[in-house]
Amino acid sequence: MSFGTKVTLNSGHEIPTLGYGTWQSAPGEVSVGVYEALKAGYRHLDLAKVYENQTDVAKGLKKAFAEIPGLKRQDIFILYLIHWPVAFSKTSDDKLFPLTAEGSNEVVIDRGVSIVDTWKALVNLPKSKVRSIGVSNFAPEHLQAIIDSTEVVPAVNQVERHPLLPQDPLVKYAKGKNIHLTAYSAFGNNTIGEPLLLEHAVIKQIAEKIGATPAQVLLAWAQVGGHSVIPKSVTASRIKSNFEEVKLADEDIAIINKIGETPRRYNIPNTFNPKWDINIWGEELEKNTSNTVI
Ligand SMILES: NC(=O)c1ccc[n+]([C@@H]2O[C@H](COP(=O)([O-])OP(=O)(O)OC[C@H]3O[C@@H](n4cnc5c(N)ncnc54)[C@H](OP(=O)(O)O)[C@@H]3O)[C@@H](O)[C@H]2O)c1
């Protein structure tokens, strides 16, 4: 069973620390996934326009509201956030990823819109509709810039975080500012075909020792320190078992912490297709980019 842990955000609203992610869920799959997740008891959903699955998500929600006794919209936490500290130029055809030229594999970055501009737009959203606002993929310097300009501290920063990328400096910074961290890609790589951390020998050993699945071990690790995590699965049995939580002993947490001594980041927009010619993290793979976060 889930421990049902919730944390109060700086917005005053509560976020369940074990949520459900919906990216890379094929049409058809995700309506079932959202329904199964809500049926299993998840009450925190990660949704985004860029996942291009809104109609299917809506189908899952509709079924859940009709069939799960007592379930109401206000029971479900959905964060409104800036997805990346990067603005794309708006083109006439309103493409989510406007390209520099027909047939190119590079997006057009809008150098006229800063993260402060976008944050101000979020701050001004009607409070009757949007309770908690946050960001995603922001490094400490990006967070500091928007706080300095608006004095409004994001409730949440959603970032890639797993044992190979523990993000210790960001964790420390966020704690000092009362910014909650949500981990995406808790199982590691999600795009480049490397084995997931579910296959990592250390994770498997600990899972076996405590009679848990590797996924349950990774989800427990992600929540140590009060952070939240949004595993994605479109497999009903995994949706359910990921929600059955386990606690890790301090000694096992320490062993898992060692995995990230040489960190490995997977989500680097300069390596995406189409690529974003921007240095966000200061990673080696971003060295030859022409843009920085403004
Ligand atoms: N803000 C951002 O920029 C950003 C970026 C990436 C992701 N996200 C969010 O974070 C969510 C999760 O991250 P992610 O998509 O990178 O994926 P993830 O949750 O790290 O991993 C998903 C993969 O793990 C598999 N899986 C799930 N539970 C499993 C289990 N118990 N045993 C074995 N395999 C299991 C899933 O397979 P099946 O689905 O086939 O079961 C899928 O292939 C996304 O869906 C999205 O909502 C946000």
Please characterize this protein's 3D structure.
It comes from Pseudallescheria apiosperma (Scedosporium apiospermum). Keywords: Oxidoreductase. InterPro entries: AKR, NAD(P)_OxRdtase_dom_sf, NADP_OxRdtase_dom. Its EC number is 1.1.1.2. This protein has 294 residues and is of the alpha/beta class. It has a single domain (6-90, 113-292), classed as TIM Barrel (Alpha-Beta Barrel), CATH 3.20.20. Helix content is 31%, strand content 11%. It contains nine helices and eleven strands. Strand 6 (133-136), helix 4 and strand 7 (156-160) form a beta-alpha-beta unit. Helix 3 (115-123) packs across helix 4 and helix 6 packs across helix 7 (214-223). The structure holds NADP nicotinamide-adenine-dinucleotide phosphate. NADP nicotinamide-adenine-dinucleotide phosphate binds at residues 21-24, 46, 83, 136-137, 158, 184-187, 190, 196, 198, 213, 215, 230-235, 238, 241-242, 267.
Topology (elements, then pairings):
Elements: E1 6-8, E2 14-16, E3 20-21, H1 29-40, E4 45-46, H2 54-67, E5 80-82, H3 115-123, E6 133-136, H4 140-150, E7 156-160, H5 168-177, E8 180-184, H6 201-210, H7 214-223, E9 228-229, H8 236-242, H9 250-257, E10 278-279, E11 291-292
Parallel strand pairs: 3-4, 5-6, 6-7, 7-8, 8-9, 10-11
Antiparallel strand pairs: 1-2
The chain binds NADP nicotinamide-adenine-dinucleotide phosphate.
GO molecular function, one term: alcohol dehydrogenase (NADP+) activity
Organism: Pseudallescheria apiosperma (Scedosporium apiospermum)
Domain NADP-dependent oxidoreductase: 79-260
